[in-house]
Amino acid sequence: MLRYKLVSVLALTAIVLSACGGYEEGEKLTLTDSIIGYDTIHDFEEQLKDTDGEIDVDGETINMLFEDYDVKVIEVSKKDKMVLVQMLDGSDEGTEWWVPEADLQNNTKK
Question: Residue 36 and which of 9, 18, 92, 108 are 20 to 30 A apart at CA?
Answer without folding.
Answer: 18
